[in-house]
Amino acid sequence: MIVTEISVCNLRNLAEQTVKPSYKLNIFTGDNAQGKTNLVESVYLCCLGKSPRTDKDKDLIRWNEENAYVKVKYKCRYGDGDICIAFRADAKKQISVNSVPITRMGELMGYLNCIYFSPNEIKIISQSPAERRRFLDIDLCQTDKNYFYSLSRYNKALMQRNNLLKQARTLDEIQDLLFVWNSQLAEEGAKVVLKRRAFCEKLKVYAAQCHTALSDGKENLTVEYVTQIKGDDYESTAVDYMHLLDQSAEKDFQLRHTSVGCQRDDISLKINGIDVRSFGSQGQQRTAALALKLAELSIIKDIIGERPVLILDDVLSELDLDRQKRLLNFDDDLQILLTTATEIDADLIKNECKYFTINNGVCEEKIY
Q1: Which pTM does this prediction carry?
Q2: Where does the chain hold its CATH 1.20.1050.90 domain(s)?
Q3: Is the pLDDT of residue 287 over 90?
Q4: What architecture (CATH level 2) is domain 1-113+308-368?
Q5: What's the pLDDT band for 333 if we cut at 50, 70, 90?
Q6: What is the second-level CATH architecture of the domain 125-304?
Q7: Which residues, other chains included, contact 281 with Cβ-Cβ below 8 Å and sequence gap of 6+?
């Protein structure tokens, strides 16, 4: 999978322009705050329909402008395609795939896949379980529309159950409604848990391989999916889910929120048997995060039959030269969009490469 053309207008600080990246490595250089991240962010937008940096669409529109748009053309195993997103300050964004408007976000998933890695992604390792669930959900939503819809229905049912618990005067008066929401949570939550578990089984293998390569065999990374829900298939998982919800009803009423379920899932990450979140150095956490991101490339290839686009936003400064070289030459069939504020040693690059400079929101190809 490759991006062949990126067109933007008024996206953050970006002027109206079209950029045609190489099928291999693309390096975008420039000083800070010139628009490097904004340009690669536009590709992420067309993959998932939202920004990795803000939840507010209006923040994506250039200052003093009312509209913005991004259009990305791409090639995949099924042929050529394009995705366009138009933003307006006074209305919801409009998304079209191959010039056909879509009405639900789930319809966007799976057309263009990417892996996004920035220094901020170390929070996958260092911060709360919510970040690790987000990591799982982004990949699964990109590759499985049914997962996206199951997760959406689950979150809506969870909100309704929590609202019910907050407003109830007694537990007895809400028993019937509680059963309704428990049933929906068990039905959709079982699907979420099973797909997360299957994903983590693949992640366990690939992340260990990537981490061994990045650490030159000096450290071993182990990955385990952590959930309260048991079961080997859908039926047994849904039954256990329902049982846990029923058991927790009185506790949940006292807490005024749902205390069990896949909204509490986590991923256990250990280096040489030691919890990397609690006891790992910053270097170990950074390497573990990178190993997870590289593992995503292989997992998505297993699922869709081709590599996603890899976006590396200002990460080379966080890595030593050996890890930089391994990363830049990870796969000959991989398209990389990389931003950096400093020049890259040409000796690190073996694959085909295109250079661009970005200044004050304008991107230009750099010819050597």
Answers
A1: 0.89
A2: 125-304
A3: no
A4: 3-Layer(aba) Sandwich (3.40)
A5: confident
A6: Up-down Bundle (1.20)
A7: none
